[in-house]
């Protein structure tokens, strides 16, 4: 028997309780993992609170990330004792996830844990850090260089945003961090490398199709009016890497920034990212993040605390990364 956070449905409500499962209860898969750590992401918050209909089949063990050690494997790529990481692939949504002491998954979904990593570091990075790294790589591929101009990071106090700020600053970019809690998080964001912190409300005003040019690049986790305003303020030839919809999935903009300023809109997905690209991103993010990041940009909770923190993360009351220690 092992402990797990189990989601069930009662009427239209989602209930989250810690209970016990047996290995035989787990879904099919080639690899059984002893989970050391998981993490709480915005999508996990939606799943645990029942917001946004993330979960459609119950019961469900949430947790889109986990790191641990292989204890059984029928796939030759992994053997007993191997340390592994999983992010994405619908785990914690359609397939039981990482908020349990054991998980059984398809081998294709795993990545070997790099030598320079451990389970705690892996989950302080997690889906959020992997996504942030993919966004930075997207800007680099679009030839947005440190001397190109300012880079705007929206939702900067969240998981993706805080890692993106850190990575960009380490690479020499001038970063402007936008957050809905600027006064509360300004000191932290500047310690992570932000040159300036601005209130999100400045980007939530109705914007004209084209505004004064300011941003060479954008990493956006918010969407909606925030992204629309940022696009209107892009420099000629700028690029925006978009990966989130915390502010909604609408995009009330026009074609003007794209056809008059040559702006590029770069969609970034970490859920189904191919193995080679995923592995490269893991290696790069680990090489760039300083040790101080792991002390500054996160907190650790227990499985019992997940429902409480899920409510907070959906309301935008959580700063940085939340590691779930199993």
Describe this structure in words.
The chain is of the alpha/beta class and 326 residues long. Helix content is 30%, strand content 28%. α5 (224-232) links the parallel β11 and β12. It is globular.
Q: How many helical elements?
A: 9
Distance between the termini: 14 Å
The tally of beta strands, per DSSP, is 15
User: How would you state the average pLDDT, rounded?
Assistant: 95
What best-fitting shape do the alpha-carbon axes yield?
globular
**SSE order, as H and E?**
EEEHEEEEHEHEHEEHEHEHHEHE
- The quaternary structure here is single chain
Helical amount among residues, as a percent range?
Answer: 25-40%
Largest sheet: 7 strands, mixed
Low-confidence stretches: none
Determine Rg (CA atoms, Å): 20 Å
Structural class: alpha/beta
What proportion of the residues form beta strands (DSSP E)?
Answer: 25-35%
Write the layout of secondary structure elements.
Layout: E1 2-10, E2 13-21, E3 31-40, H1 42-49, E4 65-73, E5 83-87, E6 102-105, E7 110-112, H2 119-141, E8 150-153, H3 159-170, E9 175-179, H4 182-192, E10 196-199, E11 215-220, H5 224-232, E12 234-242, H6 256-260, E13 264-267, H7 275-288, H8 291-296, E14 298-301, H9 306-314, E15 321-325
Parallel strand pairs: 8-9, 8-11, 9-10, 11-12, 12-13, 14-15
Antiparallel strand pairs: 1-2, 3-4, 3-6, 3-15, 4-5, 5-7
Describe this structure in a few short sentences.
With 326 residues, the chain is of the alpha/beta class.
Main features:
alpha/beta, 15 strands, globular, 326 residues, 9 helices, seven-stranded mixed β-sheet, single chain
């Amino acid at each position: 028997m092992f402990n797990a956070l189990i989601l069930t449905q009662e009427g239209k409500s989602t209930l989250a309780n810690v209970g016990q499962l047996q290995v035989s209860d787990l879904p099919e898969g080639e690899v059984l993992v002893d989970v050391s750590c998981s993490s709480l992401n915005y999508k996990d918050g939606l799943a645990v609170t029942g917001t946004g209909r993330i979960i459609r089949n119950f019961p469900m063990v949430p947790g889109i990330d986990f790191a641990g050690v292989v204890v059984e494997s029928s796939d030759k790529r992994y053997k007993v004792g191997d340390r592994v990481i999983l992010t994405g692939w619908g785990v914690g949504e359609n397939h039981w996830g990482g908020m349990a002491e054991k998980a059984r998954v398809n081998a294709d979904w795993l990545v070997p844990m790099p030598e320079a990593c451990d389970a705690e570091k892996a989950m302080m990075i997690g889906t959020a850090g992997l996504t942030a790294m993919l966004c930075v790589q997207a800007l680099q591929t679009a030839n947005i260089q440190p001397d190109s101009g300012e880079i705007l990071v929206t939702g900067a106090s969240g998981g993706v945003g805080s890692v993106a700020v850190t990575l960009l600053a380490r690479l020499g970019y001038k970063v402007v961090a936008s957050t809905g809690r600027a006064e509360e998080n300004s000191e932290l964001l500047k310690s992570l490398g932000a040159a300036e912190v601005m209130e999100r409300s400045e980007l939530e005003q109705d914007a004209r199709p084209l505004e004064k040019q300011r941003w060479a690049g954008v990493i956006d986790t918010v969407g909606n009016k925030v992204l629309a305003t940022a696009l209107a303020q892009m420099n000629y030839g700028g690029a925006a890497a978009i990966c989130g919809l915390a502010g909604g999935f609408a995009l009330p903009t026009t074609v003007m920034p794209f056809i008059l300023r040559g702006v590029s809109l770069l969609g970034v997905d970490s859920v189904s990212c191919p193995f080679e690209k995923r592995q490269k991103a893991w290696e790069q993010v680990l090489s760039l993040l300083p040790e101080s990041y792991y002390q500054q940009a996160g907190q650790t909770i227990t499985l019992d605390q997940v429902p409480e923190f899920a409510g907070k993360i959906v309301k935008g009351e959580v700063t940085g990364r939340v590691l779930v220690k199993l």
